[in-house]
Amino acid sequence: MNRRMILALGAVAMVSGLSGCGGKSGAANALNGAGATFPAPVYAKWAETYRSAKSVAVNYQAIGSGGGIKQIEAKTVDFGASDKPLKPEELEKNGLYQFPTVIGGVVPVINLPGIKPGQVRLTGQALADIFQGKVKTWNDPEIASLNAGVALPKLPITVVHRSDGSGTSFMFTSYLASQSAGWKSAVGASDTVNWPTGLGGKGNDGVSAFVQQTVGAIGYVEYAYAKQNGATYALLRNQAGNYPAPTADAFAAAAAGADWSKAPGNYIMLIDQPGQDTWPISGATFILMHKQPKDAARAKAVLAFFDWAYTSGDDTAKKLDYVPLPDSVKAMVRQQWQTSIVANGKPVYTRRPSKP
Amino acid sequence: MTATTQGRVAPGNLAETVFRIACASAATLLLAALAGVIVSLAIGGWPVLSTFGFGFLTSSEWNPVTDVYGAAGPIVGTLITAFLALILALPLALGVSLFLVEFCPPALARPVAVAVELLAGIPSIVYGMWGLFVFAPWFAAHVQVPLLLAAGDDTWWGKLVQGVPNGANIFTASVILAIMILPYMSSVFRELFLTVPATLREAAYGLGCTPFETARSVLIPYVRRSMIGVVMLGLGRALGETMAVTFIIGNAHGFPHSMFDSGSTLASTIANEFAEATGALHGAALMALGLVLFCITFGVLAIARLLIGEKAA
Questions:
Q1: Is the ipTM of this complex over 0.90?
Q2: B264–chain A nearest CA distance, Å
């Protein structure tokens, strides 16, 4: 009896193990992706809609950009995702190709009594000086000179940053490094840096909570998060010298204004791009795939999914406060697909002629 | 720990043999898993340990941009929060358990004991969020700000309470940790006090002891050896707690300069940075932090073992 039970258990284990394998090695009916947490909500929503439309399941694990890069390098997933584009040489080393999916942005949020959203104006240099601890009070001349007519209190500034490594921090510190030589040499840009001052909150929630709870605080959150929570944001001066409000249009303007043709491997940061209404801290999030996939059918299915998302996913993205790519960028990426991903000497993706 | 027959079973009894082998392999498996953890942490952390050597433990610079890593800040933060949590939780746990055993009306004892055990079942992220959204603002407004206003910058206690008045600091993290380890400790304490033979307590009362004297001279001495184990269990949990601490400690690398300064712990640093650690050395540094945490926990438990052994002798 005991032996029979053990045999039965073994059989159950084998069957479940086999069926587990079957899902992965069989036909491309379930695609697996992993990586960045920032686009996870929109990828999940796209996958859900795509599944009901095309009966293809796409599983996305939000394990962080670092994990996404590691997993695609190890070929354990069909596509990886990263908020931080890989440099062309890093792509080359691992035989990878990357393309953008949606745009996000970073917005500075503040807590000052009597100050409304968009009332305080900052430059990149001033923001860097605040986050470096050089500007310590809100009525400092460096801030006051940008804000004539705004009653800035004599309050100490409390800097709040992300404690967890994140694409948001990467975008934010990249912007500060591009605007301030002092920041670039002393701190630099990465998803985790050695913050000169302030305290760290976990995730957008953590940063937002500390800012709301501390009078005189300044932090930074994702655009979608700031919008959904009605946070008090500060305006930033862009390259054209304007102070646009952080809206979807201002982020889209950054992607449209960028010169993608001069970005080998799509290595592009949408930081401080030209344009009258461009929000200066924008950035795309990326998908990583192998240039020469071992399984052409699965690579083709992944591209078919993102092709569909480019065509039919914009409304979903907008509803979740992501900014879709401009059409010009989508057309460029589709063009790349036809030459970049090759299996057995043949491109895996061929664009169906669009209906007139 | 009921004493059963200790004698060896006659050979040929299949069930007994199988049972003995099963137990032995469970124990071996545990040791193998432990060894596996140490080895893989050591291998994973080796690039950083070989680059920075002993300096990894003594330097407090942690900079993923320039790939310079030192674990001193998180080590200090871990030790401070864990011991502070223990100091806060120990008298409370003793009080709760003595109340339940000695003073609580029997009708209430059971529900209160269950409530204490339920506290242990709350996920740590809930404690973390409660700490962040409820406790930290309250603490900042009613404790931190009054202390800051009352303290001079130059007095020693003025230095001790300096910090951003928003409740995210080493001290509040310790309080949250204390609340988290309290149910474990008080629940085991209660079980321990219940093992004190009724005759001993009755004898103490018969001699005219007050409840306080009974607790001090009979109950606590009777379970003292086991109590060290409970304390170490609580300390072990406080050392390794991740989520709740991450929410409320302020997550600043480097040494904390006051009780109300932001800090970090080994576990919170790993939890914060592991997902996005792309650089080879950054990932290795986090693995090395894991190894350090493992060694600290191991050391603490080894010391506990020694203490218990000494008392037994």
A1: no
A2: 10
- B168, A165: Cβ pair inside 8 Å? no
Tell me whether residues A202 and B251 touch, CB distance under 8 A. Answer: yes
Tokens 């100050």 belong to A115
For chain A, report the end-to-end CA distance as a whole number of angstroms. Answer: 70
Across the interface, which of B63, B274, B278 has its CB nearest the CB of A69? B278
Are A71 and A291 contacting, i.e. CB atoms less than 8 angstroms apart? no
Return per-residue pLDDT of chain B as tens, 313 residues: 444 555 555 556 889 999 999 999 999 999 999 999 999 999 999 999 999 988 899 988 888 888 889 999 999 999 999 999 999 999 999 999 988 888 888 888 888 888 888 888 888 889 999 999 999 999 988 988 888 888 777 777 878 888 878 888 999 999 999 999 999 899 899 889 989 998 988 898 899 988 888 888 888 888 888 888 888 888 888 988 888 998 888 888 888 888 888 889 999 999 888 877 777 788 899 999 999 999 998 888 788 778 766 654 4
Task: Give the A:B interface size as CB pairs under 8 Å.
Answer: 105
Asked if A209 lies within 8 A of B246 by C-beta distance, the reply is no
Q: How far lies B110's CA from each of B107, B114, B202, in Å?
A: 7, 6, 22
Q: In degrees rounded to 5, what are phi and psi of residue B213?
A: -65, -35
Q: Tell whether B10 lies on the interface with A, counting CB pairs under 8 A.
A: no
- Whether B276 and chain A come into contact, CB under 8 Å, resolves to yes
Question: Which pTM was predicted?
Answer: 0.80
